[in-house]
Specification:
By secondary structure, the protein is of the alpha/beta class. The chain is built from six helices and five strands. Strand 3, helix 3 and strand 4 form a beta-alpha-beta unit. Helix 1 runs parallel beside helix 5 and helix 2 packs across helix 3. The structure holds 5-O-phosphono-beta-D-ribofuranose. The site of 5-O-phosphono-beta-D-ribofuranose (RP5) has 10 residues, from strand 3.
Length: 172
């Protein structure tokens, strides 16, 4: 049986000014031991690079593309146009419109070319969704995702227990 390769995603940002938002995405991918190819590439300033990168992504072993952009955020849609791979769009809050411009530019894709869009600045969910998509091929990711969710639940349970104690102490 052929060895299953390391899961690999591309994290593409429209500008280096998007990096602060994407750091938590990169940290999560690292935590789940997913390889990330991370580049700056603009749909408007480097359109040929965007087309070339996306056209070659599948043959370069990438399984999911995460694309972040702000303002007239066309990068995720342009990348999606050039690849059969799933593309996850991260709208960046980078202008006077508080990211609503980015959100609508990314989410309102025409039929046939979907971009799975997370919340404005929702970089963590982009990483988690990419991991969930890849976990069909990589069972170890499915197991890690179960542990991650159990960890989230444990944190909420702890907070609830603390709240109950506090309420009792304050007679509320
Ligand atoms: C978008 O324009 C980028 O994704 C970024 O969010 C925004 C501003 O880019 P810079 O002017 O900071 O390079 O293309």
């Amino acid at each position: 049986m052929a060895a299953i390769k390391t899961p690999k995603v591309a994290v593409v940002m429209g500008s280096d000014s998007d990096l602060p938002v994407l750091k938590s995405c990169l940290r999560l991918l690292k935590e789940f031991e997913v390889e990330a190819e991370t580049i700056v590439c603009s749909a408007h300033r480097t359109p040929f690079l965007a087309a070339e990168f996306s056209s070659k992504a599948e043959s370069n072993g990438i399984e999911v593309i995460i694309a972040a952009a702000g303002k007239a955020a066309h990068l995720p849609g342009v990348l999606a146009a050039y690849t059969p791979l799933p593309v996850i769009g991260v709208p960046i809050k980078s202008s006077t419109m508080d990211g609503l411009d980015s959100l609508l530019s990314i989410v309102q894709m025409p039929t046939g070319i979907p971009v799975a869009t997370v919340a404005i600045d929702g970089a963590d969910n982009a990483a988690l969704l990419a991991i969930q998509i890849m976990s069909g091929l990589h069972p170890e990711l499915r197991e890690k995702m179960k542990q991650y969710k159990a960890g989230l639940a444990a944190k909420v349970e702890k907070k609830n227990a603390e709240l109950q104690t506090k309420l009792k102490e304050e007679g509320l």
